[in-house]
Specification:
This protein is an all-alpha fold. 51% of the residues lie in helices and 2% in strands.
Amino acid sequence: VFTNANALIPLAQTQRKYLQSGIARILKAYTMSILVDNFGDVPYSEANLGNENTVPKVDGGAAIYAAAHILLDSAIADFAKPNAAAFTGTDLYYGGSKANWLTLAKTLKLKLYMQVRLVDNTVTPKIQALLTENNLINTPAQDFVFKYGTSITAPDSRHSHYASNYTASGNGEYLSNY
């Protein structure tokens, strides 16, 4: 994700494809936050340098969260830029809806603020501002969920676990709904 986003963002900026650069920033920030949430301190500032640094240092979660907030703010700024090129291509999450991507960015900001509120007393007014603005995910259509298809053949677009577990030929492995 980082390598692709790092390559895409400057290219999209030069082509005025601000929606695409904003999406890349959001996906990068989301990935960063998930890495920290699941593993704690992880490599970030020295990561993805290839042979230049094969043993990157780990960064603290607070520093990575701060970087994620910068990315989310940059994405929000991208969405507000004038003279953007028309969106072309495929958006598998929101169909090119800038409004839904903006809502996701603000919801992720809220999530990150909520996770540090007990150790950072400066986030309370930021949380309140996001809640007051109320541009947060609140409908199923805004959920950040990959929507699989229903086609059985040519190609089978259903989730692979559905195809292998919930059909007559499936192996019957139980999958929790949690």
